[in-house]
Structures are given as C-alpha cells and as structure tokens.
C-alpha cells in the first residue's frame, strides 16, 4: 500500500513538473517591435532558417536559449536536439543557412532582445518584465 | 532499413533492365576521389570512405567488386583519364574534364565554399578580397561567376592541402583562403588546431559535386542507368540520410556558435 502511495505521489510530482516546464516558455521580442503575435508556423520557419523576416516584412534575428532549447523545439519545430543538429549540418554544408546563435545565459538573452528591435527568442515566463514583449506562449 | 532495401531492389531493376551484360561487370571497378574531403571522400588506412563510396557501392550493389584507391587528387584525375580509375566521386564538372570523363547528370551533393581568415582581418564581402592575398587548394573549381571575378580582381595562389593553407594564413603569407565550410571547420576541430580563425558566413559560391566515369572505362556504358539510380536515391532521401550518418559525430552547432 505504501509503495502504491509513493508511486502516486511520484507521478503527481513528475506530471506537474513537466506541465510547468512546458507552460513556462514564452516567445519574446523587443517592446517596440510592431509585431504583437506570431503563428506557430511563422516561429517554426524563423527558427529553422526558412525565413529571416517577421510577418510584417521586418528583419528577424532568432536566438536559441540553451536552457529551454529541447522543449522549445519539441513543441515548435517537432525536432529533437539530434535531429536539429542533422538538419543544420545539411543546410550549412550546402550553403543554405546558419543556425541561430545560441545563448547559454537566459538573462543575457533577455537583455539582448530588450536592446534590439530585430531579435526574437524564448525565455521562461517567470523572467518576463517590461523590457520584453511576449508574442506567444508555448502551447 | 526498409528504404535501403527498396533502393537496392530498384537499383538492381534499373541495371538488370538492359545493360547488365556490360563489360563493366567482368572486372574490378576502381573508384577514387579526394583523400581529404570529409564527408564526401577521405582516406584512412589505405582505404577511401565517405558519401561518394556509399553511393557508388549502392549504384553497383549487384556487383561485389568495387575497390577504392587512395591517391593524390591530381593523380586520380590523370589515371581516370587513362581509364585506370573507372569512377571518380566528389568531382566538379568542367569542359576540360568532360573531354575524358562522363559526368552523371544528377548531382551527388551541393557544397558551400566560404572565405576563411584570421580573426581581426576585416572581410565582410567579396569586394574586401580585392586588396588581399588569398589561397585555395589546387584542383578547386570555382563556379563560372566567381571564376570570372577572381580572374579580374583577385590575387590567388594554390597549395596541395588544407593544412598548408592554414599554415600560410597563420604566418601571414595569405590573408584568406577559400575552402568548403563544414569540412574545413571539422578538420580544425578534429585536429585540435589552436588557430584564431574566422569565416565569412555568406558563401562565396556553392559548387555541385558529381560522380564521373572514365570515358576509357567500360563502365561508361552504364551512365544513364546510374543517373536514374542516383535520381532515385535523391527521391528517397538516401543521400542525405547517409550524410547524416557520416556527420552524426560532427558537433556542427558547437562549431558555429
């Protein structure tokens, strides 16, 4: 009985942890960026290097966030990290583009976006403040 | 695995249809390419391996006599002219080479060629190359547009190996060199070279790597069948699946970040 109780507690803990981590990621841009929302397909194209523009035609420079990269890509592009590596190897080899720059430090990423109208990235929702604008909450 | 079997069966069908009785079937098929051009062609322990050989083995999969020869690139070209090498992989088509080699129409793979320079040297565009000394690896074929630009504007010298270009760059004898992007970065990483190098992100040009058959080889009779088989491999994404396998250990994202 004790084991079953422990197992249930464990499942509740793991379940709530994963729900929290999925719900925690938001896509952000500079507050002055005229784009106020983007569809998932637009974000996917930006982070796979298939476009370099926001939906209004302005230049977009995407940045990866190391801390949330695997969850973000699982949700947005449908690619796991290994698949993503293979995808970019093909594209770089044949001169079709470069992967977005990856930021190890979420704070620096937020600061970069806060100072650059063209940048777009994703951060933990708890880190959102008036220096950045949320344009999408990960589904 | 299913895909591989499908390709194998289709390749066998293509070949069996008409030309299976070619004299090419009765001899060893000698295949060669550049000895230091991963993942397309590279030599190790007296054998050549890479994407080019995987594909050629697939094209001749009904035949178990495909052999590779590790030779300097210039010698590969001379021996292929004479028919001593039947098939050359990872080769760019030129009118000169077409005199002695029949190129399979369908490309093997497209490759980005970029400018490498020491950090601190300002090179942001093709026009920044005009005032500087550059290098390339002997046998490199530029695309027509860049060849014209280079002839009219650039001072370029060639060497035999990538390592020589890296040394010349480090010692300031050249200010940049032109080289395939990913293979060059991989080479620097694999050899743990401590060199303060940078590259121009925008490709200078891209080249189409092909497979060619010596016109002096009986295998040249199979060129149309090989073209169909190679098209099929592309349709099935076989080429890039093999590319993925060959580069799986390359940490491309880390190289570029």
Compose a concise summary of this entry.
The complex is a heterodimer of chains A (139) and B (257). Chain A is of the alpha/beta class. Chain A has helices at 2-23, 40-47, 69-76, 81-93, 106-114; strands at 25-29, 61-65, 101-103, 119-124, 133-137.
Q: Unreliable stretches of chain A, pLDDT < 50, 5 or more residues?
A: 9-22
Main beta sheet of chain A: 5 strands, mixed
Helix and strand composition category of chain A: alpha/beta
What radius of gyration of chain A results from the CA coordinates? 17 Å
**Top-tier CATH class of the largest domain in chain B:** Alpha Beta
| Helix-strand topology string of chain A | HEHEHHEHEE
Q: Could you say what the CATH architecture of chain A is?
A: 3-Layer(aba) Sandwich
**Order of strands in the sheet with the most strands of chain A?**
3-2-4-1-5
Main pleated sheet of chain B: 10 strands, mixed
Report the structural category of chain B: alpha/beta
Notes on the structure:
The complex is a heterodimer of chains A (139) and B (257). With 139 residues, chain A is α/β, with parallel strands linked by helices. Chain A has one domain: 3-Layer(aba) Sandwich (D-Maltodextrin-Binding Protein, domain 2), CATH 3.40.190.10. Helix content of chain A is 43%, strand content 17%. Chain A is built from five helices and five strands. The longest helix of chain A has 22 residues, at 2-23. Chain B is an alpha/beta fold. Chain B has two domains: 2-109 and 207-251, Periplasmic binding protein-like II (D-Maltodextrin-Binding Protein, domain 2), CATH 3.40.190; 111-206, D-Maltodextrin-Binding Protein, domain 2, CATH 3.40.190. Helices cover 37% and strands 24% of the residues of chain B. Chain B is built from ten helices and 13 strands. Chain B has helices at residues 2-17, 51-59, 73-81, 95-98, 144-153, 162-170, 181-190, 223-235, 238-246, 252-256, and strands at residues 29-32, 36-37, 41-44, 47-49, 66-68, 87-91, 101-103, 109-118, 133-137, 155-159, 176-180, 197-199, 205-214. In chain B, the strands form two sheets. In chain B, strands 1, 5, 6, 7, 8, 9, 10, 11, 12 and 13 form a ten-stranded mixed sheet that branches. In chain B, β9 (133-137), α5 and β10 (155-159) form a beta-alpha-beta unit. Residues 17-21 of chain B have low confidence and may be disordered. The interface between A and B is medium-sized, with 16 and 22 residues.
